[in-house]
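Input record (one chain):
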Amino acid sequence: MNEVKEDLRNIEQIYKLFLQQQFTFIRALQHTRENAHDMIRPVTSISQVQSYMDHYCNNSTDRRILNMFLNICNDLSKLCHKLEAVRSGNERTNGILETCKLLLSHSNDLSTIRAKYPHDVVNHLSCDEAKNHYGGVVSLIPVVLDCMKEWVAHTEKLPLYNVSGGGGTSEERDAPARAATLQTPRSVHLEAQTSTCNKDNVQVQGRKHVWKKPLNGTEKHSGKRQGPWKPPGRHAF
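The corresponding structure, as predicted from the sequence alone:
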């Protein structure tokens, strides 16, 4: 889980750099759409951006920023597959994961996706750009990042026994076995000691029973030895 969170933080740092160049990204899309004579339809998928960069990109600046966008999407997709191997979650976390995978599909239609507050990527576009051209493509990465953060938050609340066979550290998986190994010899040793003590106790009690001298009736009641009985009357001293 720590590795997943570290990967997510690294992607966020790269995305912050990309976010500072959003205007450059929009210009690169405009240039490549012009070169492709594709100015009417909106940018609706990752594969469309890939096609623009591969076939209609004429300068290094446009290629660099388009490649940066595609690399972030690729890193998010890899992280999404890593999340599947970390824990076997519940219905909610599995649903979040499926949403991320769908959003990052190269053929998925992004036209209806909109990043909401606190993200302001759509606000940096004109009304026409946001509604008809780039609103979905600029919203993709922040929406996926939010979904992955939500997945991490919910997964950390799940009990540890939900960790799948492929996830978790070897220490976590081997802890029960180690505990059983440490406890078993001790319990056997204690049982042996108890058995030996009981046996010794029986032997000691047996010896006491053999050597114990029975008391007569008088000794049982008074605890002292008395002389022979004398009839009442006067007796010589």
